[in-house]
């Protein structure tokens, strides 16, 4: 799911300041943990990118928090505002604030609300043709009060992407392999690691992604187990 959301948010080469995306995924995973109880989810973002570098977007997804004792939660809305800056043709930095909103969430007794805020800073760098056009990314996220009352929380994620082939068969946007490795820590909960490895392919406005996702969490429902996630998205505008 993360690939489709990121692809829509990048806004590179945009001709219009507005971009839209509709995604179907076999399992909505956030930092390795299923937010849809290992079931399919529908997702849709809309984003505005100003030429100055400022951007804002709203992103929505169906969810199922039944494994966490909240069977009422059925959808999530993320509201984001931020700024992008190109340090060079190869390097870009982003800072943003994200509000994660769960309108119909009803957590179990003695558990705080699911809604929370994160401050996120990221950096991407393209190594160029001498390094097979591999691109690297890094992100750090901080929440002063994470979902469910887990207190201060940090998440650090690193990623790499390799364009396997510029065009293949009907995929005129090429085929790319990518991977991510991250660590999430909580003031009031156990730390965890998460990772994924996958391949994506694009044809015109469509993107398809196949990804293996896992965490090192043991004391957790099945939603933390390893799984194969299939995602298809279609983008408009931008």
What this model shows, in words?
The chain has 1 helix and 14 strands, in the order αββββββββββββββ. It has 238 residues and is mainly beta. A hairpin with a 4-residue loop joins β6 and β7. It is globular, with a radius of gyration of 18 Å. The two termini are 20 Å apart.
Summarize the structure.
The chain is mostly beta strands and about 240 residues long. It has one helix at about 1-10, and strands at about 20-25, 30, 35, 40-50, 55-60, 75-85, 90-100, 115-125, 135-145, 155-165, 175-185, 190-205, 205-215, 225-235. The strands form 2 sheets. Strands 1-4-5-6-7-8-9-10-11-12-13-14 form a 12-stranded antiparallel beta barrel. A two-stranded antiparallel ribbon has the order 2-3.
């Amino acid at each position: 799911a993360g690939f489709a959301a990121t692809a829509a948010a990048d806004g590179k080469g945009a001709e219009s300041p507005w971009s839209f995306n509709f995604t179907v995924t076999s399992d909505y995973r956030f930092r390795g943990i299923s937010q849809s109880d290992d079931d399919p989810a529908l997702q849709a973002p809309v984003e505005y990118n100003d030429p100055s570098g400022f951007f804002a977007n709203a992103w929505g997804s169906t969810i199922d928090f039944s494994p966490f004792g909240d069977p009422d939660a059925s959808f999530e809305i993320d509201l984001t505002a931020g700024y992008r800056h190109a340090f060079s043709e190869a390097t870009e930095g982003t800072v943003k604030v994200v509000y994660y909103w769960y309108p119909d969430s009803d957590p179990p007794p003695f558990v705080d609300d699911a809604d929370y805020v994160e401050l996120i800073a990221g950096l991407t760098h393209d190594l160029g043709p001498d390094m097979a056009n591999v691109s690297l990314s890094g992100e750090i996220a901080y929440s002063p009060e994470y979902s469910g009352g887990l207190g201060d929380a940090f998440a650090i994620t690193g990623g790499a992407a390799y364009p396997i082939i510029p065009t293949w068969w009907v995929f005129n946007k090429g085929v790319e392999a990518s991977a991510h490795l991250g660590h999430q820590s909580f003031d009031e909960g156990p730390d965890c690691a998460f990772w994924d490895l996958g391949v994506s392919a694009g044809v015109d406005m469509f993107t398809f992604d196949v990804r293996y996702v896992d965490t090192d969490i043991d004391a957790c429902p099945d939603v933390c187990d390893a799984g194969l996630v299939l995602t298809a998205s279609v983008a408009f505008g931008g």
